[in-house]
Design a protein that fits this description.
The termini are far apart. The chain has a 6-stranded parallel beta sheet with strand order 3-2-1-4-5-6. It has helices at about 15-30, 65-70, 85-95, 105-110, 125-140, 160-165, 180-190, 195-215, 220-225, 230-240, and strands at about 1-10, 35-40, 50-55, 75, 100, 115-120. The protein has 2 domains: about 1-140, Glycogen Phosphorylase B (Rossmann fold, 3-Layer(aba) Sandwich); about 180-240, no CATH class. It is of the alpha/beta class. The chain is built from 10 helices and 6 strands, in the order βαββαβαβαβαααααα. Helix 1 (about 15-30) packs across helix 5 and helix 8 (about 195-215) packs antiparallel against helix 10. Helix 3 (about 85-95) links the parallel strand 4 and strand 5.
């Protein structure tokens, strides 16, 4: 079974988990083959030590063609942190591909009641994922019978009412200050001046440059070799 994972994978996007499952597949000679359409924050173990092929960075406009070329049986989203939307999931839905998503964030809501879709615990171990993939290969893909559509536990079965289910949780604090002219002047006086203002401007310019370098088609392949911890420290230093 050919299983695709899409995107630039950090630890919270599931890079380490993907590698662990692919290594287990190689060790156990399981009939599972993983493909990363994208890259990870570090070099991952690939064939023959792991049943994994890393195809490298791609242009977003080419994703539809890449999925058609690879023709995966399944697309897996191994995220260890909640996603707010996921454009790569949109591409998979448009391509009518089977998908597996974690039970956190917006992904479960987006595939609720969809056929050939699975919602699994985000905290599953590599062995759990191995057992899951091996199981659906036999139970669903070999038989051609899809799983029963499931609803994520966090999605209410009744219709969602904004005023009832969202606004009821908001608390208006009596001591919330009124936005007066005096309050605005007070915070305006806190703006940096002199050298501090120059320093803030330089940091902003550098941050803009860093973002452009990361997004440049020719340079982002070089950036991915910079340890993620270094990138994070630089970003927080520039925005503080």
């Amino acid at each position: 079974m050919k299983i695709a994972v899409i995107g630039a994978l950090s630890p919270i996007k599931g890079a380490d988990l993907l590698e662990s499952v692919a290594k287990l597949a190689a060790d156990s000679q399981a009939p599972l083959d993983f493909h990363l359409l994208g890259y990870a924050y570090r070099q991952l173990q690939t064939q023959p030590k792991a049943r994994l092929t890393v195809h490298g960075a791609y242009d977003e406009a080419d994703l539809e063609k890449l999925l058609d070329w690879l023709k995966p049986d399944l697309v897996w989203f191994p995220a260890q942190w909640p996603e707010t939307y996921s454009y790569t999931l949109s591409a998979c839905l448009k391509a009518a591909l089977p998908v597996v998503v974690p039970n956190i964030g917006a992904l479960p809501e987006r595939i609720a009641a969809r056929g050939w879709s699975w919602i699994r615990p985000w905290s599953n171990s590599a062995k759990d994922w191995m057992a899951f993939f091996s199981g659906i290969r036999i139970e669903n893909f070999q038989t051609g019978e899809g799983p029963a559509p499931t609803l994520p536990s966090q999605v209410p079965t009744s219709s969602f009412a904004y005023s009832e289910h969202y606004l009821e949780a908001l608390v208006v604090r009596a001591e919330t200050p009124v936005l007066t002219d005096e309050l605005i002047r007070h915070h305006a006086d806190l703006r940096p001046v002199g050298f501090a203002a120059i320093e803030q401007g330089v940091r902003g310019t550098l941050l803009t440059g860093v973002v452009r370098v990361r997004n440049h088609p020719m340079l982002r392949r070089v950036v991915r070799w910079v340890p993620l911890s270094w990138q994070t420290r630089l970003k927080f230093w520039l925005i503080r």
